[in-house]
Specification:
This protein is an alpha/beta fold and 238 residues long. It folds into 2 domains: 1-79 and 156-238, Rossmann fold; 86-155, no CATH class. It is 32% helix and 24% strand. The protein contains 8 helices and 10 strands. Helix 4 (140-152) runs parallel beside helix 5 (170-185). The radius of gyration is 18 Å and the shape is globular. The structure holds adenosine-5'-triphosphate. It comes from Pseudogemmobacter faecipullorum. Belongs to the ABC transporter superfamily. InterPro entries: AAA+_ATPase, ABC_transporter-like_ATP-bd, BCAA_Transport_ATP-bd_LivF, P-loop_NTPase. Keywords: Amino-acid transport, ATP-binding, Nucleotide-binding, Transport.
Length: 238
């Protein structure tokens, strides 16, 4: 299945559109990155896809399902995980407790809930040493990795990720991007992410969209992007 956003206009106040007829496709089994200057509406687009904001124009389809008829609470059941930019972990709780909280949606499946910590620590082994420590004590990169792993516990087909490496040093950011590539290439999941880290966000992508003034500016596969647009990215964004 793929996610198709077609001609979507939306905003926070009546008559003030942040998104202006935006169209984006997250192709199955690919990593799609959306870039654009600060405040262009990247986070707003993700909030509209997950149903936190209602578009007043356009359609959002996940396969045959019209997502504009659903809200954020329906996502997990539809195979979609949303990784927000912040406020996603409980910093005062331990890593193990955060994992338990993330199993809430399948708490009645005891075997699966019990296996959640094993799954997280098998996939991201260096998080295991923090199991009994407060999540807020981990580095920004480790917290982001945990957040991604918690989202994966629901076994999503589609991950929507808001700024995977914001505030994270370049080395750890590189590890996060490698992790995202594995999620796509080895597990066959689909990722749609918005990113301010333009160079890395484009490098890791299969397909790229550039937004400007709340609308579509440029798009293309990475090969096309590299050949035609890479030198001009800085002009559009800064
Ligand atoms: N809850 C809100 N209420 C009103 N306006 C908002 C709200 N959230 C964002 N905006 C406005 O919408 C516009 C787009 O914001 P958005 O966060 O989507 O941009 P962005 O491209 O993700 O930028 P950034 O990378 O800086 O987060 C901005 O002008 C912002 O001030």
């Amino acid at each position: 299945m793929q996610l198709e956003v077609t001609g979507v206009s939306a905003g926070y106040q009546r008559d003030i559109d942040i998104l202006r007829e935006v169209s984006v496709i997250a192709r199955k089994g690919q990593l799609t990155t959306i870039i654009g200057a600060n405040g262009v509406g990247k986070s707003t687009l993700l909030k509209t896809i997950i149903g936190q904001l209602r578009p007043h124009k356009g359609t959002i389809r996940w396969g045959e399902t019209d997502l504009t008829r659903h809200g954020p609470h329906d996502l997990v059941g539809m195979g979609i995980a949303y990784v927000a930019q912040r406020h996603a972990l409980f910093p005062e709780m331990t890593v193990a407790e955060n994992i338990t909280m993330a199993t809430w949606s399948f708490r009645h499946d005891k075997a699966r809930s019990r296996g959640a910590a094993d799954q997280v620590f098998a996939r991201a082994p260096h998080l295991a040493e923090f199991a009994g420590k407060r999540a807020g004590l981990m580095s920004g990169g480790q917290q982001r990795l945990l957040q991604l792993e918690l989202a994966l516990l629901s076994d999503p087909q589609l991950m929507l990720i808001d700024e995977p490496t914001v505030g994270i040093d370049p080395k750890r950011a590189g590890q996060i991007y490698e992790h995202l590539r594995r999620i796509v290439a080895e597990e066959g999941r689909t990722i749609l992410m918005v990113d301010q880290n333009v160079i890395a966000g484009v490098d890791v992508a299969d397909y790229i969209y550039v937004l400007e003034l709340g609308g579509n500016k440029i798009e293309g596969s990475r090969a096309v992007f590299d050949a035609q647009y890479r030198d001009r990215i800085a002009d559009w964004l800064f």
